[in-house]
């Protein structure tokens, strides 16, 4: 157990209990307001979690309350048990069905995936609030969601193979698998760079996420412009079909907004680390896997967005909207 360091602006407490295979079973973080925290203790009350699911559940509540109630500082400072007893949480089925359930499943799956990569714990002895949010709120959650997509892709591949129709649908499955695997690989490299406090590596990953977000945003803008400028397309869409079109555009807008916000969150790590004096060759070897993963994602997206007048654009969007 590492005791809090008195006299410093950052108060950090880490409790780590390991089972036989070295898995992290409990962690408690206390980071005061100079790092942008709202006074929330991940394992304050109720007691510290004793299982990965309990940790994911507690971290999910902390994350949702932090992001859904960003201006409710007094509510965010309450103990977790008191927060969950409040009417806005306890009597809100939308919170549990639409927010808590998908988030906790993604976070738990992402935690298990990164445990296999040896990335289940903090990125440093004194993990800042910004690093914690990037690791748990965004990296674990997006990795968990991508693994779920990979699982559905594999089930689809098995289903179409049994029906002897695999080669009719293989392109969409292959593109989806490649994007998801590259994305999880990029998240792994991001945490790897954060653990090593690599200024160059972290900035490379942030730029990769920026490229990814910009490419999705550009495709959405082009799609809206296409429907706006094409009178023929607008005339075809009427009644229920027009409602479906609007839903698809809003769905894709929400998807783009998620990745844009994630990029801004990651950007807070831009100047957190310092140059360590290593040679250019060593730095390039360190960031090369991350750049390859980013290039694979961007290449597949450009292929889908632009090839054959954008006929494969839907393959990219289906990967994120799962329709």
UniProtKB/TrEMBL annotation:
<keyword id="KW-0472">Membrane</keyword>
<feature type="transmembrane region" description="Helical">
    <location>
        <begin position="249"/>
        <end position="267"/>
    </location>
</feature>
<protein>
    <submittedName>
        <fullName>Uncharacterized protein</fullName>
    </submittedName>
</protein>
<keyword id="KW-0812">Transmembrane</keyword>
<feature type="transmembrane region" description="Helical">
    <location>
        <begin position="169"/>
        <end position="192"/>
    </location>
</feature>
<keyword id="KW-1133">Transmembrane helix</keyword>
<feature type="transmembrane region" description="Helical">
    <location>
        <begin position="287"/>
        <end position="307"/>
    </location>
</feature>
<feature type="transmembrane region" description="Helical">
    <location>
        <begin position="204"/>
        <end position="229"/>
    </location>
</feature>
């Amino acid at each position: 157990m590492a005791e809090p360091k008195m006299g410093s602006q950052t108060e950090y407490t880490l409790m780590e209990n390991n089972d036989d295979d070295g898995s992290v079973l409990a962690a408690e973080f206390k980071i005061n307001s100079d790092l942008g925290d709202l006074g929330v203790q991940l394992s304050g009350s109720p007691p510290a979690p004793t299982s990965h699911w309990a940790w994911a559940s507690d971290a999910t509540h902390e994350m949702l309350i932090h992001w859904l109630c960003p201006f409710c500082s007094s509510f965010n400072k309450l103990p977790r048990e008191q927060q969950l007893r409040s009417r806005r949480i306890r009597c809100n089925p939308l919170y549990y069905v639409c927010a808590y359930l998908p988030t906790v499943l993604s976070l738990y799956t992402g935690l298990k995936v990164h445990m296999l990569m040896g990335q289940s714990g903090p990125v440093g002895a004194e993990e800042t609030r910004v690093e914690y949010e990037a690791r748990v709120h965004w990296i674990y959650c997006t990795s968990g969601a991508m693994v779920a997509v990979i699982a559905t892709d594999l089930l689809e591949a098995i289903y179409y193979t049994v029906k002897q129709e695999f080669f009719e649908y293989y392109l969409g499955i292959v593109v989806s698998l490649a994007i998801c695997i590259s994305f999880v690989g990029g998240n792994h490299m991001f945490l790897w760079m954060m653990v090593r406090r690599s200024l160059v590596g972290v900035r490379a990953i942030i730029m990769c996420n920026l490229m990814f977000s910009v490419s999705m945003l550009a495709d959405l803008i082009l799609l809206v412009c296409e429907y706006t400028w094409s009178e023929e397309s607008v005339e075809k869409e009427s009644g229920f079909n027009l409602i479906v079109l609007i839903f698809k555009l809003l769905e894709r807008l929400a998807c783009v907004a998620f990745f844009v916000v994630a990029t801004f969150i990651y950007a807070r790590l831009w100047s957190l680390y310092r140059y360590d004096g290593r040679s250019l060759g060593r730095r390039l070897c360190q960031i090369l896997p991350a750049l390859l993963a980013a290039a694979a994602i961007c290449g597949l997206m450009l292929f889908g967005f632009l090839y054959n007048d954008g006929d494969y654009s839907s393959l990219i969007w289906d990967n994120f909207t799962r329709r």
